[in-house]
Amino acid sequence: MSGGLEGPPPEERASPDGRRNSQGIRIDPEVEAEPESRRAVLSALVQHEPGVLANVSGLFRRRQFNIESLTVGPTTDGDRARITLEIDEPEPGIEQAKKQLQKLVPVIAVTELEPDAIRRELALIKVDGSAPDQVGAVAEMYDGKTVDVSRESVTVEITGSEQKIDAAVETFGRFGIHEIVRTGTAALERGTRKTT
Amino acid sequence: MSERTTKQRETEETTDADAKGGDGTPTTVTSGATSTVRALENAGIETMFGVQGGAIMPVYDALWGSDIDHVMMAHEQGAAHAADAYNVVSGRPGVCLATSGPGATNLVTGIADANMDSDAVVALTGQVPQSMVGSDAFQETDTTGITAPITKNNYFASDADTVGDTVGEAVALAGSGRPGPTLVDLPKDVTNNETDRDPGMPQTPETYTPQEEADADAVETAAHTIEAADRPLLLFGGGVVKADASEEARAFATEYEIPVVTTMPGIGTVPEDHDLCLSWAGMHGTGYANMAINHTDLLIAVGTRFDDRLTGGIETFAPDAEVIHVDIDPAEVSKNIHADYPLIGDAGRVLEQLHDALPEAPDADEWREQCQTWKTEYPMGYATPDDEPLKPQFVVEALDEATSDEAIVTSGVGQHQMWASQYWTFREPRTWVSSHGLGTMGYGLPAAIGARLAADDDEEVVCVDGDGSFLMTVQELSVAVREDLDITVAILNNEYIGMVRQWQDAFFEGRHMAAGYSWIPEFDKLAEAFGARGWRVDDYDEVADAIEAALDYDGPSVIDFHIDPAENVYPMVPSGGANDEFALSEDQL
Ligand SMILES: Cc1ncc(C[n+]2csc(CCOP(=O)(O)OP(=O)(O)O)c2C)c(N)n1
Ligand SMILES: [Mg+2]
């Protein structure tokens, strides 16, 4: 095969010692550790129109952002909806996710919520109906309530942080869980701070 | 464009296309379709490219009587690429049209291509009537669903009264901020329904507000960093072309005497024969550009997205450099390469801001000398031994020689694309028209058609194509003949999908699986069958004459250059390698 060029070969070239990590940040390779990921809650105000949700979820899938939960619902303005997203990413990934989200034309504004923001999730947990009183007592422990009872099953409704729901699910496990549904996190800033 | 010559239809007085109206008055709005056309007229659209079909027929019908020229393409992919190149060359949005279903899916490659290269392409697709959407109707596809990931934004028009506004918005959005493709899906009931609403002037959505000017403090800090740099390097990407910021880019480089490398889409932002210009960097970029990238201590990157074909391995990219990154799209900043100094804004505007903030040139004599040394150490070149077949680099240089500085070059994808970009000396922006991000074989010929219609008459349009790439969209030659377009296609014919063959030689122990054409058409004769002119060239002494004849011919011409099938492209940075690890020959890979 031909097409070769002249010049010093690769091994004769002086190469700098510097390095970047996989995020493209210059590092000292001696001390660099794997970047740690963290949980971030993003809130996006979007045009309330068909395709927006598909677009947002498609974006997170195709760019391989680790998405933990996604909820969407209308706001008081009929033209706008709010999407709450929880993601688990190293720092540069969180920044990228925000920017990519913001870049979608129907997305009006994006913010990352403060760590102390109000975060709530709703779960409906359907357990075996053999011990309704005990189920009711546990539900109360989690500030939940029984919303449906039949001979075979009891369904309770719990709201709270993701951790609280996780704990409740574990506790209800001993009754035998038939079915469960969780909404994913909805979140707003506390006090006078605006979410978007 | 020019007098009809060999066309069989010479005797016909008029064609349908000539009969089609256009009396200088804007289209009267009576329906969703006429509103669509009126919106395009309001947006200043003069030319569009497309293919007819059931669901888009109302829009086509509304074009009868409009001043907008329509070029009937052979395949919708060709329409999208032609619209794309029209945009690259003119800076104005390129518009393509297709029917629903297969028409729309045939556009997809071209839309994805435009998306990767940030080209302002507007696609209008027909759709089945809304009452049938979701029923798997004849020629129904979920076009907005399919194209959502490859458009800047897309729209499903649902109302005849507002469809014109939507089309206007799609045109305005495609060309503003960071350009990109948009699409409007047009259900047939929407285009057929009555309305008399004039859509008015096109507008971007109120919530779309790209930042034009960078933060003043950030500019100040970046300027100080430039002044203090020992080995500053400018990296101009396609964003400089999009922003029409070549002038600012040249002024900045020359005033502060900072060496320049470009990306492939950034070719032409500065004249490649300028002392400060090191040509383009990346996988097949020049050795000197890649050395400079690797050794700079301050990379001033403007309008680039740090594609992996530019950076090679992220870990070893410009490892000693701080990075100033100027871009209008914040999402590109620190996406692949961390920006120490992000400057969000329009390329031209931010370069002016930097210019105003930078009193003194950096003290970089030694560095400039070093860059010149690399130029002499790693020259681009090739030998032309008598006993070997024609070298492709020679053909590219001969074409460059025979054409003006303003000549426009389109290409397919493969080795020929690399030789064209390496051995053609580009001096002007918007003269190198290629498929960079998507790497779409078949781009070259339809792109030449779009380029021809966007270019001035005195600018030659040359498509440097590969045999494989040519075969992917060869049907568009019929369009060039019908429209009598003066383009010259130069096929660098190695009877291989050569770039694949090169990789097989380097990385698959020479097993040429599905890389060679055991038989290939005679392209000169194929061209003649289409009604174009064709030549075949095998020897050095025929090259200049064939080029002259083809350029002289006032219509589409094809030269089939049979080149050395064994020729490979160098330098080559192995994928994922460091820029300064470029191989100069196969044994270095
Ligand atoms: C549509 C498409 N299919 C496949 C490829 C993969 N590919 C890249 S280069 C290449 C060879 C191109 O052959 P040719 O056009 O003859 O160019 P050459 O490399 O021989 O100059 C192929 C198959 C591609 N880039 N695009
Ligand atoms: Mg080939």
UniProtKB/TrEMBL annotation, chain A:
Keyword Aminoacyl-tRNA synthetase in record: no
Xref: CDD domains: ACT_AHAS
Gene3D superfamilies documented for this protein: 3.30.70.260, ACT-like. Chain A, domain 2
Record's GO cellular component terms: cytoplasm
Domain ACT: 41-115
Biased composition (Basic and acidic residues): 10-20
Catalytic activity line of the entry: 2 pyruvate + H(+) = (2S)-2-acetolactate + CO2
Pfam family, one: ALS_ss_C
EC primary class: transferase
UniProt record, GO biological process: isoleucine biosynthetic process; L-valine biosynthetic process
Annotated spans, Disordered: 1-36
The keyword Transferase is assigned to this record: yes
Highest taxon, organism lineage: Archaea
EC numbers on record: 2.2.1.6
Keywords of the record: Amino-acid biosynthesis, Branched-chain amino acid biosynthesis, Transferase
The protein's annotated pathway: Amino-acid biosynthesis; L-isoleucine biosynthesis; L-isoleucine from 2-oxobutanoate: step 1/4; Amino-acid biosynthesis; L-valine biosynthesis; L-valine from pyruvate: step 1/4
GO molecular function: acetolactate synthase activity; acetolactate synthase regulator activity
Subunit composition and interactions: Dimer of large and small chains.
Physiological role: Catalyzes the conversion of 2 pyruvate molecules into acetolactate in the first common step of the biosynthetic pathway of the branched-amino acids such as leucine, isoleucine, and valine.
Protein family membership: Belongs to the acetolactate synthase small subunit family.
Name assigned to this protein: Acetolactate synthase small subunit
Species the sequence originates in: Haloplanus ruber
Automatic annotation (TrEMBL), chain B:
Comp. bias (Basic and acidic residues): 1-21
BP GO terms, sorted: amino acid biosynthetic process; branched-chain amino acid biosynthetic process; sulfur compound biosynthetic process
Key words of the record: Amino-acid biosynthesis, Branched-chain amino acid biosynthesis, Magnesium, Metal-binding, Thiamine pyrophosphate, Transferase
Lineage, uppermost ranks: Archaea, Methanobacteriati, Methanobacteriota, Stenosarchaea group, Halobacteria
Pfam family, one: TPP_enzyme_C
Domain Thiamine pyrophosphate enzyme N-terminal TPP-binding, first and last residues per copy: 32-144
Keyword Amino-acid biosynthesis carried by entry: yes
Domain Thiamine pyrophosphate enzyme central positions: 219-354
Claim: Magnesium is one of the keywords in the record: yes
Cofactor: how bound: Binds 1 thiamine pyrophosphate per subunit.
E.C. numbers: 2.2.1.6
Protein name (database record): Acetolactate synthase
Domain Thiamine pyrophosphate enzyme TPP-binding, first and last residues per copy: 412-561
Cofactors that this protein relies on: thiamine diphosphate; Mg(2+)
Pathway: Amino-acid biosynthesis; L-isoleucine biosynthesis; L-isoleucine from 2-oxobutanoate: step 1/4; Amino-acid biosynthesis; L-valine biosynthesis; L-valine from pyruvate: step 1/4
